[in-house]
Amino acid sequence: MIPQQCSMILSPYSELYDMLIPKDNLLRKINELVDFSFVVNELKDKYCLDNGRQAIHPIRMFKNICC
What we know:
Blueprint: H1 14-20, H2 26-33, H3 37-43, H4 58-66
């Protein structure tokens, strides 16, 4: 089951990301340049909206696998 959400819930530690990861980091640049919303559109028919456990957000899973 994938929740009906428009944005991902960010970690309470997201401020650490800004302090520790340099602004010119490659993965930071990729995150700023690429719109990952296509992942949700491609996979929305693979998730049940009302049955099963809550799934990890597809964009998060895509980023974990690819990066």
